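Help!! Second protein's tokens look totally different from the first
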Amino acid sequence: VEQSPYQRLVLTRHRDDVRLYIDGHLQLSSVDEYRYHEALVHPPMLAHPAPESVLVLGGGDGLAVREVLRHPEVQRVLLVDLDPRMTELFTERDELSALNADALHDPRVEVLNADAFSWLVENDGAGERFDVAVVDFPDPNDFGLGKLYTNQFYRLLGRRLTDEGVFSVQSTSPLFSPEAYWCIVRTLESEGLAVRPYHAYVPAFGEWGFALAGAAGLPAFRPLPEGLRFLDDRTLEGLFHFP
């Protein structure tokens, strides 16, 4: 158990299943997190013709970064996560850094501990731009998190992307929280973005939702990288079908 200034982190282990809880809410199970992170990361990476620079907002466990680094085109990853204790745990503890394949030690990766919204505001109109962004925040259960799912946030994020930039957003469950899920999709669309909603089944969470968005449209996907455990051509296509 770790109590940081921002949140309560609890790690449990049962046999080969390592689980992380934040403020009592399950964030990942090592048994099936690959399904979530492959679905979150690879659609935006495949929708960009040459993703050299990637911004990851949230995701201090480094698991999304692990998936980003499967793409050989990547030259730089900036991870912006609020809680330094989270990134420290998943960098320093061997059993946790093993989950992210030691991604946070990769020389292409920079870790910045900052509030993502404030960082975007402070750097608005300045600084580097990214080909791809991966937005991996907890569900918008309070004001502090809710501001990360607003028009203003997506507008600020869009100004940090290149002209062909695309991004994905963790968007809660379209099955268990359909109003919240489709509200996120509509908010993205209201910013004039091309949006493709999609979902994946993650046993620890159930049916889970995401959104893929880009200002310049969403081209056909490039081929998947090797070594994935969940996504192939068939399952990638299936992500975008809703009953």
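Here's the second one for comparison:
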Amino acid sequence: MDWSPPDTWDALRAWLEVLIPSLPEKPTAIVIASAHWEADPVRVTTMTAPPLLYDYGGFPAHTYELTWPAPGAPDLAQRMHSLLRDAGIDSADEPARGFDHGVFVPLKVMVPDADIPTVSLSLRPDLDPAFHQKIGAALAPLRDEGVLILGSGNSYHNMRGFMAGDGLDPSRRFDAWLHDAVVKTGVARNAALDAWAGAPAAAETHPREEHLIPLMIAAGAAADEPGAAVFSDVIMGAQLTGVRFG
């Protein structure tokens, strides 16, 4: 889309473009938790050819014609159910809902050939950080099977702050805490992320935390591996950070 200034998203796009090539090997599949999908129990897409869900309004006409025809992975979805069940977590099939923009927009940049089977995972509406770390821990064995586990959200998500352009100070204060939290390991990181609401400027940065919670799933899957802030940029007047584990 046209944007002012025109280079607003260039750094983020450049980071996403090299994320897959930077991995030791191409993933066999992707599991992605989207900030734009909540369900109880948590749901897993099971279609062989998921459609796209244009869950936004007021954008240019061409943004409703985007395509990203990646295959689904029904067998992987059932494997996820098994792992979640073993961890005492209820889950259910989602046979109809397509990939929302929290899935297909970043993945269209990351995987332009749409050639990696992909399964989308919902959040639970209570947005409990400990529960979502537990989801990640349950799914961690998938990493040894070549599956990339992604959390699609945002380290700052205050739409009023974006529109007003006054998000820089709170986002930077929260960002400093986030950098310190993700480099911890195991129990220490779990405790820090569970207590995110007590972080500096937490309420200003995340008036509702649905865009932070996908991070909890990725962190849970990391076990004792430290995280690192591997992307950082000021976008629309707010400091945004991307985190990688492993």
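Reply: Different proteins will give different token patterns, so don't panic. The mean pLDDT is 97.
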